[in-house]
Amino acid sequence: MSRDLAALAEHGIIRYEEDGRVKKPRLTQEHLIVEPVV
Fold first, then answer.
1. How does DSSP classify residue 13?
2. This protein's superkingdom (predicted)?
């Protein structure tokens, strides 16, 4: 799962919020539209 989150962060879909020693993934946008690639 960490590789998937890293890929999402690399593409700017998520960002990490640091809370002490914990990094929490958060979406960068309020809405996200996902369309299948054909």
1. S
2. Archaea
Please give the model's pTM, rounded to 2 decimal places: 0.70
For 3, the token pair is 């590789």
E-state strands within 1-38: 14-19, 22-27
Q: Which pair of tokens denotes residue 14?
A: 């998520």
Amino acid at 38: V
Write out pLDDT tens, residues 10-37.
999 999 999 999 999 999 999 989 899 9
Calculate the CA dihedral of residues 18, 26, 13, 9 and round it to 10 degrees.
30
pLDDT for the residue 32: 87
